[in-house]
Each structure stands twice: as C-alpha cells, then as structure tokens.
Amino acid sequence: MEHHRSHIYGVMAEFDTPEQLIHAVEKARAAGYRRMDAYTPFPVEGLAHAMGLKRNMVPFITLLGGLAGGLGGFYFQYWANVVSFPQNIGGRPFNSWPAFIPVTFELTVLGAALCAVFGMLALNRLPQPHHPVFNVKRFVHATSDRFYLCIEARDPNFHIAETARFLQGLHPHHVSEVVDD
Amino acid sequence: MSAGQPPIDSPEIRRLTPVLGPGYTFGSVTDKISSIVLTRPTSFGWYIGFALSFGFTALMTIAIGWLVIKGTGIWGINIPIGWGFAIVNFVWWIGIGHAGTLISAILFLLNQKWRTSINRFAEAMTLFAVACAGIFPLIHTGRPWMAFYMLPYPSTMGLWPQFRSPLIWDVFAVSTYATVSLLFWFVGLIPDLATLRDHATTKTKQILYGMLALGWRGSVRHWHRYQSTYLLLAGLATPLVLSVHTVVSFDFAVAIVPGWHTTIFPPYFVAGAIYSGFAMVLSIAIPLRKAYGLEDFITMRHLDNMAKVMLATGLIVAYGYFFEFFMSLYSGNKFDVFLVQQRLHGPYSHFYFALILCNILLPQSLWAYKLRHSVAFLFIMSLVVNTGMWLERFVIVVISLTRDFTPSAWGRYQPTFWDWATFSGTIGFFVMLLFLFVRVLPAISIAEMRELVAETSED
C-alpha cells in the first residue's frame, strides 16, 4: 500500500461548468483539504478566492523591474555624459536631465515588462514540459471546455479511496486517479 | 446622419449587434478557432496570396541587397532632402503598429468586451508593422552593419550615443515597443498554444506547440499570476504606446525646420497613429472574417466600433491640421507662412490636397449608420485612410525639406524605382507574415473567447 501510494499524485474530478468547480472547491476546503489545484480553460472569476489564494508577487517584482530600469537608465546616461565622456554640446549642462527623460521612461517600461513576464513564468515554474496531471487522458479537455479539481496525495487528509468517494459525491462528470511516474 | 438609426447603445441595439454570435459554447469556440490552424486544409486562395506577397518580399530583399552594394545613391534622396521615402515609410509603419497595443492594452483597461476577438491579430499586425518600420531607419543609415553604433556599448573609443538626440530616443522607444508588444502577444498566446498542443492532429504539431506552450496546464495558481501579469502589461503598454509616436514626432518637432518645429506634433502624431492603425485593422479584419467564416466572432459591432474610433481619431487629426495651419499664419513667422503657401500652391500641393481628401473629407461619410454597416465600403475607406496617412508623412517630410530657409537650399524630390521597390516590398513582407500567422497560430484568442462565452451566457 505504501509503495502504491508513492506513485499516486492525487485524485482528479472533472466538471462541466465553472460554477460546479467553484462549488466543489468550496466543499473540498470545508472538508479540510488544502493541497489541491484547480485547472480551467480560462481564468474563472471567483475561483482564486474560493481556493484561498491571496495576493501574488508579480506586481512587486514588476515594481522592482521598473525601478531598476528607470534608475539604472537615468544613472547610466548621467554617468556617460558627466563622468565617462563629458562633452560640451551647445553649452548645455553635462547633466541635461530633461533630455534624459525619454530614454529613462522607455527603460522603466522595459524593465517592468520583462520582470512581469519572466517573474510570472518563474513563479509558475514554467516552462515545465511534464506534469503528472498530463498523465490523465481526459485532461486534454482542460484547455477546451472542462474544469478540473485535483486533490493531491501530499495533503495530510488524503486517502485514495475516501478522497475519490468524496469527489464522487460532488457529482462530477468523471473521477480519475493521477499517477506520478 | 442617416434616418432610421436606432438609439445609441441601447440594450436593444446590443442585442441586435452582439459581440459574439448566438449559441456558442466553450467547446465550439475552441473547435472553430483551432480548426483554422489544425484541421482545415490550406485553401488555394491562401497559396495565391502567399505567393504574391512572397514575391514582393523577394523584391524587398533584392532592393535592400542592391542598396547595400551601391549605397543610398540608388534612392531619390539628395541634399537637402535627406529624409525621403525611408523616413516617410518608417513613420507610416510605426503608426500602423499602434492600433494593436491600443486595442490590447487601452481597451482592456477600459473593460471593452468587443476587443476580445480582434486583439490577437491586431497585436500580430503591430509586431509585423514594427518589423517593417524597423527596416527603414536601419537601411537609411546607408551602412546598416554599423547600426550598433546607436546602442550604448563599451567601445574602444570610449564614446557613448548622444542621449540628448531624439534619434537616440527613437532607438530606445521603438526597440522597447517591439519587445513589450512581443511579450504581450506571447503571454496572450500561451493558453492558446496549450489548446493547440492538446488538440494537435500530428505528433510534430503536438511537440512544436507543446514547446511553445511552456507546459501550460491552466492551474488556478498560474491563472492568478497570469492575470496580474496581463493587467500590468496592459498598464505598462498604455503609456508606452503613447510615448512611441510622441518620440517619433520629436524627431521632427525638435528640429528647427519650418513645418516641423511645432508643439502640436506629439498629440497629433499619436492620434494619426491610432487612426491609421485602426484603418489597417479593418483592412485585415474584413478579408479575414470573410475567408475563414468568422462573422460570428468579428461581428458588425466590431466593424462599427472600429469605424467610430477611426472617425473620432480622424477628427483629432483634422484639428491638428487646422491648428498647424492656423498657428503658422498666426505666428507671423515668414518661413512658416511661406511653408503654408508651399503646401497650398507649391510643387507638391496635389499631395496636400489628396491628403485632406483622404484623411478629412472622405472619412466624414462614416457618420452615416448605413455606410458604417456596409462591409465593402468600410474596406475601401480603410484603404483610403491608410493612403491618406502615408500622404501626411510625405507632405511633412518632403515639403518642409524642399522649402527651408534660403532659396539656394531649395530642392526637389523624386522617388526612384528602388524607393518604390523597397516600400512595396515591405507591404508584401507584412502581408506574407500575416498569411503565415493565420495559418500557424490562432488569429483570435481562444481563451478570451471562452471567457466571453461565460460572460455573455450570464446576461
């Protein structure tokens, strides 16, 4: 039994509508399950809240990227024109800061956008070519028209038969075991 | 105003002109859009269109190759008209490239549901237009292999780019815009690439789309961060899109040349960019919905809204023309007054009148409800506006440069065969990229269409 359980990633239920999925998530949380994930073909409003997800780190990382881009961009122009190679261009001050604003602005946006996208991918652990949920044949519908809830084996309350019975009680379309290979 | 127009934006008119045809489910929008890429056979028309546009792309590469061998002398540029077609086309293309991000970012922030079915190909159009735009300043340098001089890199000479110059601001603005537009487009594509991976009909397609999808599995935790990212990118792209054409207009406005040295340039360039961009989106959307039967997704409501945006931005552009004209006369500056006379009566006045006709007079027909709802008319009008916006850049660049301060510095400009070859070549390149795009990637965002199905089924 122990040996068998180590190959089980979790139990997955398939639902037809986003409302059924939200309802199932609320029920599962009420039943004490915490280590679980929901899979949907589009961002379902209210699902993150039902899962108990709070704020994420992406906005903070984006802010850091924007600050780094902006401050770094301005400082670089200052350094190039004042320290590294000062030149008198039409009597203008070496630090002609208003002229440095367009590049500073563009680099702020660039830094923030790069950090937003690559920060999101890193936090999501993507790219990740393989994941146990892909072992479920029916999971191809997760990118089309079905909604999935997977209660994972690492949840302390997880017991394969009982969890499967619990999910069956939520009237899903289908329940399947997720094998971890 | 035409008779019989229903009241504006009443629930009645929204029911009559929906953003999505009736009866669609999550599965059916998925199947319909992904089938264009995965299962539908490539049509004969596609091959014809691709071959034609590929021919023009070949012409472009020949023109650029000849330019690299012979130098910019093969073009019509001379002294004093150093900026000819290369800059006219650069500004035209970069302007067209503004609609994609505007639709994706600004309409997203304004929560306009109708953007959903047009944002994907509008973003693709943006990328392709920016690619075409980027070619021109690069080859206009005459030695494109030296273009890296414009970037700040630690050279053995210890020199840095001149950060006080608008031309360097341009390098940063356009390259940032290209990068952020690409990121925005790719982030939007990730869930759809996963759909294509899961619906792939062959192993090769599954592997290729699978690699691009980065292993996306639609986890709620992923969506949670994904939505934050998308909103942030929209927020970042909004000021960015306004800054890009502002910086492009600085290339002119910071110079002292009559007709360029004016503070109205940044807002009126941005409005003109949106104007031409929406015209190009219409020029693409109309054949696309026809060829792939997407009338339920790109509905009359979309075409009508885009026509209205064109009308509104066209009026801002008209305001810009009027005040440019008025301020030149009101300033009493004899060079500015002379430039106005040159626009009206000079050797290039027919371009100026054609511009007024294409950009101001003809688009007023879009006030009529009936004409906004005629697909053929909208298509023709979108081409008219694109022509008009090209003429605007021609008028700005050529008339000012041929008639500056001293008569001894006056000149004439005549584009050569190679100017036309390069220009028509980039149009072919743009169209070729669009043909490839509709064949290998979903032209409409599938994930967002499912969201739209969920939202509209609630109403």
Description:
The complex is a heterodimer of chains A (181) and B (459). Chain A has 181 residues and is an alpha+beta fold. Chain A folds into two domains: 2-55 and 133-179; 58-123, no CATH class. Chain A contains six helices and four strands. Chain A has a four-stranded antiparallel β-sheet, with helices on one face. Chain A is rod-shaped. In chain A, 43% of the residues are buried. The mean pLDDT of chain A is 92. In chain B, helix 6 packs antiparallel against helix 7, helix 6 (119-140) packs across helix 10 (265-291) and helix 12 crosses helix 13 (349-361). Chain B is mainly alpha-helical and 459 residues long. The model of chain B is unreliable at 1-7 (pLDDT under 50). Chain B contains 17 helices and no strands. At the A-B interface, strand 2, helix 4 and helix 5 of A face helix 2, helix 7, helix 9 and helix 17 of B.
Key structural traits:
heterodimer; A: 181 residues; alpha+beta; 2 domains; 6 helices; 46% helix; B: 459 residues; Formate dehydrogenase/DMSO reductase fold; 17 helices; 71% helix; disordered N terminus
Q: Roughly how many Å is the radius of gyration of chain A?
A: 25 Å
Shape designation of chain B: globular
Helical fraction of chain A: 40-55%
Briefly note the CATH topology name of chain B: Formate dehydrogenase/DMSO reductase fold
CATH class of chain B: Mainly Alpha
Chains forming the largest contact: A-B, 62 and 62 residues
Spans of chain B with pLDDT under 50 lasting ≥5 residues?
1-7
Structural class category of chain B: mainly alpha
What's the helix count of chain B?
17
What is the count of DSSP helices of chain A, taking H or I runs of 4+ residues? 6
Low-confidence stretches of chain A: none
Q: Could you state the oligomeric state of the chains shown?
A: heterodimer
Q: How many strands appear in the DSSP assignment of chain A? A: 4
